[in-house]
Design brief:
Oligomer: single chain
Number of helices: 7
Order of helices and strands: HEHEEHEEEHEEEHEEHEEEH
Largest sheet: 10 strands, mixed
Helix content: 25-40%
Length: about 230
């Protein structure tokens, strides 16, 4: 059984973040469970190693105590995601947070074109973060600019796609598995992939399955973690 002292000395908790929860909500739930059930002091150190959007589920690494010093190292590790692109329509947020704004033809798209297009995204690529993201520009988060209807110029960033595999084609849906570097936006990958197909696309499902050597198969749901204490 893990004691209060163990959590203070440092633990890496593998949490399977539920859909529609923010990463902050998940950390907070764990924090107060440890305070109330294990007796940790209210100001003990806890934090997560890499935000996961509310519309994504999957692996969230939460560090406690002295292991919070490992957060930046963990954030730098490669991440694996699985999910679904919807081909033929875009949204301003590149996912389901906003409504469809444009529709595009898909009659020209076949399996050969899809697999050929994947090759364009392997290795180091230039990627623009979505306007609906938490990155700050001029001290304000991009999604705040977006919700205010402001047009903002977003700079390209270098990111690396180590592996990109199509696992199911059932147009207008395409399922995928991606292994990528820190800072990669899968929503932007969806948008850019649709554009490369001479169509459009947005992300309709996303699950983070790995961070470095940590796998979601070994993770526990937030509610289950609390129940197990």
């Amino acid at each position: 059984m893990t004691t209060a002292e163990d959590y203070q000395n440092g633990q890496i908790l593998l949490i399977d973040k539920p859909l529609n929860w923010t990463s902050f909500q998940a950390v907070n739930k764990i924090k107060y469970a440890l305070i109330n059930k294990v007796g940790l002091p209210k100001k003990f150190k806890i934090g997560h190693a890499g935000t996961l959007d509310p519309l994504a589920s999957g692996l969230l690494l939460i560090c406690t105590g002295k292991f919070t010093k490992k957060i930046s190292e963990l954030q730098g590790q490669a991440k694996e995601y699985t999910g679904t692109f919807f081909i033929g329509a875009t949204t301003p947020s590149y996912d389901l947070e906003t409504e469809i704004d444009n529709n595009f033809p898909i009659s020209h798209i076949n399996e050969e074109l899809i697999h050929e297009t994947v090759k364009q995204f392997l290795g180091e690529i230039d990627q623009k973060p979505p306007i609906y993201s938490a990155i700050k520009k001029d001290g304000v988060r991009l999604y705040e600019h977006a919700r205010a209807g402001e047009v903002i110029e977003i700079a390209f960033r270098k990111t690396t796609i180590h592996e990109f595999e199509i696992t199911r084609i059932a147009l207008p849906e395409i399922d995928f598995r991606v292994v990528c570097s820190k800072g990669t936006y899968i929503r932007s990958l969806a948008f850019d992939f649709g554009k490369a197909l001479n169509s459009g696309a947005h992300l309709t499902a996303l699950r983070r399955t790995k961070i470095g050597d940590y796998h979601v198969e070994n993770a526990v749901d937030v509610i289950q973690f609390e129940a197990n204490l």
